[in-house]
Design goal:
heterodimer, A: 134 residues, mainly alpha, Arc Repressor Mutant, subunit A, 2 domains, two-stranded antiparallel sheet, 8 helices, 55% helix, globular, B: 294 residues, alpha/beta, Rossmann fold, six-stranded mixed β-sheet, 11 helices, 34% helix
């Protein structure tokens, strides 16, 4: 597959005016793609240069996201291939790291609940109902 | 080029118009390969800074250099590797696009005719008629293409997108990213449209009262400048001392404030001290700018 189309194929997108740093937005999306196995183990990510062009984002921002994911063990740098999805990715993400992925969503939920004058207890009760038991 | 040497460097730069100080000890150091946006309110000294960097204005105090040369004595070599697009480009307006390109290209040994032709077509710069008849936006597009023609190592632009329509703006930003990822050039551009900066630039310098208020990654800025919503079970007096902001007066059990140096530790500190729920809310660059620039 030609590399130029990879970013759009993966559905990577960024929203520059959001408060969330662009590199974080990319990290979150790649992690989700890995978790859902849309990006299976061993698959290659677009090069920094290509993704930068595709998303019209500074190449350094892409590098930053890739490096951070490499540190977390999600990506491995392979000579000649660039970044690929590491083997055994999910066990390397401990609970704290996985919860971290939900951080922004939780913060937003908490804020909106407060604006709607929904108490903590009420919110937790609804959450409990929403989430299927195991 | 030396990888670690700053491409742009100013040290304690002072400049006043008559008795009106504009730059008051401005420090800036920009590494090669950076695309950096220069933000500041009207009259904060952005244009004056460009004029000092290029040696058009001599500072009363301090020092500035670009590509290793003192701004007041730029060598022919540095001039070849440099391009500047002023806020209001002053082109020979009796020429046509082809004539001015033919004229300017003669000054550079490495003029990229192919790139220039492509950009002129993509950006829909008029080929017919003389420049005097162009709109402000058309003239600005032509000036930017001319500045990119010799693929400069350093590209300086004062408000390059001010009169571009959204589609031209997007094409311009795409081109900046493309040139930067291919040649690793350095770009400094001023703007007050913050959304432009966020795509193209990884870094930002905020000028306030003639000094560099912040220089660094936009991502770092977004992680450290947040809006805190605090709801506590203990009275919030004393919050100012905890945050080391003596001017901050908080009372009651609920407050919303913007912090410039947010950390998770600070969050837990507030939570324990005041038995509080603390919700940090991230902010877009535009909101951050409004908070910081005042």
């Amino acid at each position: 597959m030609p590399e130029r189309s990879q970013a759009s194929l993966l559905g990577l997108h960024i929203s520059p005016s959001s408060g969330i740093p662009i590199y974080r937005q990319l990290m979150d999306q790649i992690i989700r793609l890995v978790a859902s196995e849309i990006l299976p183990v061993g698959s290659e990510l677009p090069s920094v240069r290509n993704l930068a062009k595709q998303l019209t984002v500074n190449p350094m921002t892409i590098s930053k996201a890739y490096s951070a994911l490499e540190m977390q063990g999600v990506l491995t740098r392979v000579r000649g291939k660039g970044m690929i999805i590491s083997e055994n990715t999910s066990p390397q993400l401990d609970l704290t790291q996985r919860v971290e992925q939900l951080d922004n969503t939780i913060a937003k939920l908490a804020l909106e609940a407060r604006q709607l004058n929904v108490s903590k207890a009420q919110l937790l009760e609804y959450l409990d109902k929403k989430i299927p038991k195991n | 080029m030396n990888e670690h040497r700053a491409v742009i460097e100013t040290k304690d730069l002072h400049f006043s118009y008559q008795s009106e100080p504009v730059l008051r000890g401005l420090n800036l150091s920009i590494k090669p390969g950076t695309i950096i946006g220069l933000l500041g309110k009207n009259g904060s000294g952005k244009t004056t800074l460009f004029n000092c960097l290029l040696g058009f204005l001599a500072p009363q105090d301090g020092h500035s250099s670009i590509l290793g040369d003192n701004s007041l004595a730029l060598s022919a070599n540095v001039r070849q590797r440099l391009a500047f697009v002023p806020q209001t480009p002053d082109l020979f307006d009796w020429m046509t696009t082809s004539q001015i390109i033919a004229f300017v290209s003669k000054f550079y040994s490495n003029w990229n005719h192919e790139l220039v032709e492509t950009l002129l077509s993509e950006w829909e710069v008029p080929r017919k008629g003389i420049i005097r008849g162009f709109s402000v936006g058309e003239t600005q597009k032509l000036a930017i293409v001319m500045a990119m023609g010799h693929q400069p190592d350093l590209l300086l632009m004062d408000e390059p997108v001010a009169s571009l329509d959204p589609s031209a703006k997007r094409k311009f930003i795409r081109q900046l990213v493309e040139l930067n990822s291919e040649s690793g050039n350095t770009v400094l551009f001023s703007t007050h449209i913050t959304a432009d900066i966020e795509r193209a630039a990884a870094d930002v310098a905020i000028i306030k009262s003639g000094r560099t208020y912040f220089q660094g990654a936009i991502d770092d800025l977004k992680e450290h400048v947040v809006k805190l919503h605090i709801k506590s079970r203990k009275e919030l007096d004393g919050l100012g001392e905890l945050l080391q902001q003596p001017g901050l007066i908080a009372c009651g059990n609920e407050t919303v404030l913007t912090l410039e140096n947010f950390t998770q530790e600070l969050k837990s500190q507030i939570e324990t001290t005041f038995d509080a729920d603390v919700e940090p809310q991230t902010m877009g660059l535009e909101d951050i700018f409004v908070e910081l620039a005042d």
